[in-house]
């Protein structure tokens, strides 16, 4: 395994050397020198030889069934990293206004088995493509995965909800009501029909592809500065905007998909009438009795993964609650290796977009809410207009198509402000 991995790392290092030679010529807008031609030819030959050796070793090792599992993951990760790197080159070329395939040779495609040039049996790899009217590029799956990871890093709320990938069209999600949640398997003799056969009526909700747009500007210097991973930087900045929007809509989205400002949103938890409610004893005040009633209202099967979700104002009030001995109920804790705050042993998460009429939720957000993220995110690059051309800036517009709704109202409960 170590020999195979070392060969793959050596091959990737040679690819980096080849790319460096290509980039110098591209940046200086000139032809290759004789010395560069010789270097390029030597590197291409060496990469091809290393690829042949790697394939031989792969086939040889795969003949030993005991080594398949230990080899497979490392090889897969090495190939994914190479694929991601080449897609980064394409996006940088796109941002710089160059041909997206600049700097990507046949040998480099062979690194991850790209295209027909890689030979028979090679795995397929789709380069970054434009959309139907060629006004934007479609983010490939490897970088889409990065984007979703950035979304989860930017928002604990987004990280918790179930995310369903979808290619296109409408996705009908199964809703789990009280009848479904409490359904128990029935014991019957072989050959007999269950007594409740066909009685349960499953309900569904349609999730449609709603367009959400994030905008960001970068300078020409940032794009051309090779010391900056401009692709990761742009995706992370776009993810911040989309994460804020998704977190907002998960709680207070109106679910509309109409023309006009604020009329395109996910279906928010606040608007779900089937969620059980506990009302505070006093308006605009929160007591431990209120919070205990709320936690006890949740079905037992959802308690293990439950958390408190609170507004910033509710958090400040809860932070001041003490027991008879003067000890604060809000405690320091560790959840999944992270330092956090806990209440009654459960993590407490602050959400600035929740409203004062429902200042606290308690439950399993992943069991309660699901969102669909359509594959085929689009990135549009605007630099030819007068304003951007004079300022030497690039306007980037990223379209993400998604929708979300409450899939199981039994998995979360709501603390309602006293009327």
Structure description:
- By secondary structure, this protein is an alpha+beta fold.
- It has 13 helices and 16 strands.
- It has helices at residues 2-27, 34-62, 65-95, 106-111, 141-154, 156-160, 178-181, 220-224, 230-252, 288-296, 312-319, 365-368, 386-391, and strands spanning 129-130, 137-138, 162-166, 171-175, 203-207, 210-219, 276-279, 307-310, 330-335, 338-343, 346-350, 360-363, 369-374, 378-382, 393-406, 412-416.
- Strands 1, 2, 3, 6, 13, 14 and 15 form a 7-stranded mixed β-sheet that branches. The chain has a 7-stranded mixed β-sheet with strand order 7-16-12-8-11-10-9.
- A hairpin with a 2-residue loop joins strand 9 (330-335) and strand 10.
- The longest helix has 31 residues, at 65-95.
Mind sketching the topology for me?
Layout: H1 2-27, H2 34-62, H3 65-95, H4 106-111, E1 129-130, E2 137-138, H5 141-154, H6 156-160, E3 162-166, E4 171-175, H7 178-181, E5 203-207, E6 210-219, H8 220-224, H9 230-252, E7 276-279, H10 288-296, E8 307-310, H11 312-319, E9 330-335, E10 338-343, E11 346-350, E12 360-363, H12 365-368, E13 369-374, E14 378-382, H13 386-391, E15 393-406, E16 412-416
Parallel strand pairs: 3-13, 7-16, 8-11
Antiparallel strand pairs: 1-2, 2-14, 4-5, 6-15, 8-12, 9-10, 10-11, 12-16, 13-15, 14-15
Helix pairs in contact: 1-2, 1-3, 5-9
